[in-house]
């Protein structure tokens, strides 16, 4: 009888332990990003963004709840660095080198130089930027070389701030207040499709292809766990077709299949 009672208690203890383990692991994960549609779109929308859908799918499979909000990018980085938020979605390594990153990219970003249709300028290297006034988004990373160029030439570069810098940049480009805008190809395509009046903007060269990640807070001890979970599930998603289905839902193809074209 004593032995049997001991076994029953062991079984109850095991059940309680497993339940408590589940509760501990089922986290509410706060991730922040800015408006970068179709990567990250309006909160509560049927299409919250391709990156949001990928990460939410992964964390749901791990028993977590994704809590994401749109905030200015520099604020998202600063408050994640301090530990107020768990991470930032849509990050490049160069955005926050001290953050914790997973290995497998969520997607790729193609940064393209856009010009007014009457402009004949073409990007042939950093030296060709000396001829024009460039517009970019404040606090964004465009790759190591271009970031360094922007940092060293702030006096001749227009840096748009706020939650939707693309609106300001396209407006200034069409009024010829700036001559070239550096922007993500998918983002520009998405924005132009939303406008009632078509705007003639041409691609004038590619700056970079960059992998995109979730960057987790360097002061949160769970950051490594979350990064590992993304790696585990993301590999499975790409193998079983789930990742591709999410891209197709937004009318996207992997960026390596996206060809250079004019808008």
TrEMBL record:
The keyword Zinc does not apply. Gene3D superfamilies: Periplasmic binding protein-like II (3.40.190.10). Keywords: Signal. It holds the Pfam family SBP_bac_3. Residues 37-250 form the Solute-binding protein family 3/N-terminal domain. PANTHER family: ABC TRANSPORTER SUBSTRATE-BINDING PROTEIN, MEMBRANE-BOUND LYTIC MUREIN TRANSGLYCOSYLASE F. Belongs to the bacterial solute-binding protein 3 family. This is Transporter substrate-binding domain-containing protein.
């Amino acid at each position: 009888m004593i032995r049997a009672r001991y076994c029953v208690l062991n079984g109850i203890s095991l059940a309680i332990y497993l339940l408590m383990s589940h509760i501990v692991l089922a986290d509410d994960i706060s991730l922040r990003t800015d408006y970068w549609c179709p990567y990250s779109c309006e909160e509560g929308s049927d299409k919250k963004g391709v990156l949001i859908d990928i990460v939410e799918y992964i964390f749901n499979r791990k028993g977590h709840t994704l809590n994401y909000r749109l905030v200015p990018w520099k604020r998202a980085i600063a408050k994640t660095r301090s530990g107020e938020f768990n991470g930032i979605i849509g990050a490049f390594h160069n955005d926050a080198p001290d953050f914790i990153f997973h290995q497998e990219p969520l997607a790729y970003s193609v940064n393209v130089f856009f010009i007014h249709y009457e402009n004949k300028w073409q990007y042939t290297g950093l030296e060709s930027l000396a001829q024009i006034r460039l517009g970019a988004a404040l606090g964004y990373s465009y790759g190591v070389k271009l970031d360094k160029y922007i940092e060293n030439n702030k006096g001749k570069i227009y840096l748009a701030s706020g939650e939707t810098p693309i609106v300001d940049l396209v407006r200034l480009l069409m009024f010829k207040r700036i001559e070239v805008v550096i922007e993500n190809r998918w983002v520009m395509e998405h924005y132009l499709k939303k406008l009632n009046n078509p705007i003639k903007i041409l691609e004038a060269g590619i700056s970079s292809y960059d992998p995109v990640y979730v960057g987790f807070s360097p002061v949160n001890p769970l950051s490594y766990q979350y990064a590992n979970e993304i790696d585990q599930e993301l590999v499975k998603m790409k193998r079983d077709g789930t990742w591709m289905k999410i891209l197709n839902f937004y009318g996207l193809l992997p960026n390596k299949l996206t060809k250079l074209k004019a808008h």
